Amino acid sequence: MTSLYKISVNQSTSFEINKEQIDNLDIVKTPEGNLHLIFKSRSITAELLDSDLNSKTYVLRIRNNIFKVQINDQLDILIADMGLSEKQMDKIQSIKAPMPGLILDLMVETGQEVSENDPLLILEAMKMENIIKSPRAGIIRSVHVKKEQAIDKNTLLIEFE
How many CA atoms lie within 13 A of 142 on its CB side? Predict the structure, then answer.
């Protein structure tokens, strides 16, 4: 299986490149810290202005033009195809019970602002306490369960605004 990368430039142009094509690029780092490359028989000098290794985003200056480059590898592409990207997580509007159980504790109420990964409630299932955390930042629109309430799988627990 060939490694495939999806490159997005300024969020308007995108293309795919594979490992072999990357290996065949003629790129050299200059003593000044810039990048010199030959592309389609043309010499190009690029200055790296900023980089964020976590988001795989780079800002380059080429001939006084600024380019924001986003690189996605096969895992990034798979995550996006599965609908699990951060943008998709922001669209989550409700939380349903992942399993049947008993609500032991509620840590939020209607109108409360929460951050991603804040604990929302504790669900006891099969004698284990499961902390249900917020999948995103937001405001609680409504809480549909009460403390000590027995629930079934897929019961609506909490809605976000």
Answer: 4
Q: What DSSP string runs through 85-123?
A: SHHHHHT--EEE-SS-EEEEEE---TT-EE-TT-EEEEE
Determine how many CB atoms are found less than 10 A away from the CB of residue 23.
7
- What the chain holds in terms of domains, given with CATH numbers, is 4-86 (no CATH), 92-160 (2.40.50.100)
Between the alpha carbon of residue 12 and those of residues 49, 51, 67, the distances in Å are: 20, 19, 11
pTM recorded for the entire structure:
0.49
d(CA 131, CA 111): 20
61, two tokens: 């200056």
Kindly calculate the radius of gyration of the chain based on its CA atoms and give it in whole angstroms: 24
- Per the structure block, which two tokens stand in for 47? 């200055």
* Tens-digit pLDDT profile for residues 125-154: 988 999 999 988 999 999 999 999 999 999
Closest residue by Cα to residue 101 from 78, 124, 70: 124
